[in-house]
Amino acid sequence: MADYATLTKTIASLTEGETDTVALMATVACELHHADPRFDWTGFYRVTEPNLLKIGPYQGGHGCLQIPFSKGVCGAAARTGETQLVADVDAFPGHIACASSTRSEIVLPVRDASGTIIAVLDIDSNQPDAFKAEDATALQAILTDTFSCP
Known about the structure:
Layout: H1 4-15, H2 21-33, E1 41-49, E2 52-59, E3 66-68, H3 72-80, E4 84-86, E5 104-111, E6 117-125, H4 133-148
Antiparallel strand pairs: 1-2, 1-6, 2-3, 4-5, 5-6
């Protein structure tokens, strides 16, 4: 399991003073991806127009280029504003299989300082039931610290 206390400090140190959202996303994706062997694909899908996500900085194999809010786990997180913790992607109605190796997934909404959803953080695992509530809590804290602080 990721050492979230160390990750939080490392990401804060690396991103201190940075305001460019894409640079922040690239740094977070890289640090998270290499911190835990469960993380098979780690990246962001950015809100680029109403009800549409487009791929942003990521680590791992190719991702889907576009995801409508109406489809998949990422779309559900963007549409509802709630973290999606999926133990078995095959059991999730409307799951989009960007990679056939994905077995479980966690997707968290990313908000800016005004509370607007600007992206989602998507982490896929090739292991079933890889993510727990503790992951969601720790990842949300990292996202809040990185993207919500003015």
